[in-house]
Amino acid sequence: MIVVGAGTAGCYASYILGKGGLKVALLERKGFNDIGYKVCGDAIGKHHFDNLSLSYPSGEELDCIFSGVKIYSPDEEHSIIVPGEGFGVNRKAFGRRLLNMALDVGVDLFPSFHVSKPLVEGGFVVGVEGVDREGHTVQIKSSVVIDASGFSSIVRSRLPSDWWISEKIRGEDTNICYREIVETKVDFDTKYAMIYLSKRIAPGGYWWLFPKRSNVVNVGLGVQPTMNAPNPRVNYMRFIASRPEFKGARVIDSGGGIVPTRRPIYCPVGNGVLAVGDALAACNPIHGGGIGPSLISAKHAAEVILEALEHGSPSMDNLWSYCLRYISDYGLKQSSLDLFRMFLQKLSDDDLNFAFKHNVISGDDVDRVGRVGELNLGVVGKVGRALKLISRPSLLYKLKVVVDYMGKIKALYGEYPRDPKGFPAWRDRVEKLICEFMEHIS
Predict the structure, then answer these.
(1) Residue ranges in the chain whose pLDDT is less than 50
(2) d(CA 128, CA 3)
């Protein structure tokens, strides 16, 4: 086995494969001491650890424990609390835990190894080519390759364009982020992770403040890279770093990156190859959280590989159940949240302020959306709330549309083809549904 990328998904997949008895080469472009570090929001829901039977963060891994998320309106005059336990983690320490788990089961790590392309023979991916730490161009062969290289998708993006797994991700389905970890002179409540909606500050995204300790916070923003979109670092300095609570703050760390904020790529497998983590676009489309779904994708990919190699070759047919398992576990919800993300991006700050002021969407509503990808808002069926929206007919209309289409796309993803033969027709149906939805809300 070759796993490209020693991030969350790559390390966890390597651990399961190594534990299953396979010989695994884990290739990572970073030097050994830098593995585990990533520019990230550093937050993950407790339920992911429960579902994967992973021990909770503790010691140096654990920065704080959240009891929910507080979401603010653009004018910051109103907020809702979405309940749910979660952890603020030391991202590098957590990444090192996953790496050590892999090394402890015999995985061979190759740090400072820059993969340049996949090797394809006879219609199968049979390994990769890259440059090792001595600067030599080398080829490594394997039965299967997992692309865990992050958003760059260095393996799948360099496969022939007629391979379904090589799907390109559009810029408007991403956020460009900038964040800093700062030590402040004021104390923050560590009970909640805080999200601020504002088209002025973070068009197409949001800005966040996630406490790590009372006076150390992870703060940043994400911007949808559409035409005339602002530079996220410029907006951070202009609107966030200049706030009174950050006066005199000391910057501990800073950096940026690209986050996929959409449904997973339609087909994450090919002959001898699978995509996991950000290479799969395994992120929550609403808040961009990727640690949990990355672990989920790694688990299913590794287990399917172990089963496939027991029964024969790692063909697309034999690896296809990975698609079904990920869709069932997380992709169903991810697809409906993708439409909710598009809906939110179409609303003005004025619409959002109105919705918060009149409690159009409650914390429990948002919690249900986040947990199961369903929006059962009273605003659609209850006259009392609907009357509040008489002055906003376009908002009421869009809410009705998004509720309807979130149900439709979730049902369609529930019909994901059981084998590759039905895939092209299914993909066309999804694309048509999304086009219809966008026409309605534009």
Answers:
(1) 379, 382-384
(2) 10
Q: Could you tell me the two tokens for 33? A: 């001491």
Residue 132 tokens read as: 């090792």
Residues in Cβ contact with 56 at an 8 Å cutoff, skipping those fewer than 6 apart: 46, 49, 62, 87
Summarised one tens digit per residue, pLDDT across range 285-329 is: 998 999 999 999 999 999 999 999 998 899 999 999 999 999 999
Q: Residue 60 has what pLDDT?
A: 96
Residue 362 burial (10 A CB sphere; 0-12, 13-18, 19+): middle
Write the CB contacts of 144 (distance below 8 Å, at least 6 apart in sequence): 1, 2, 125, 272, 273, 274, 305, 308, 309, 314, 319
pLDDT for 262: 96
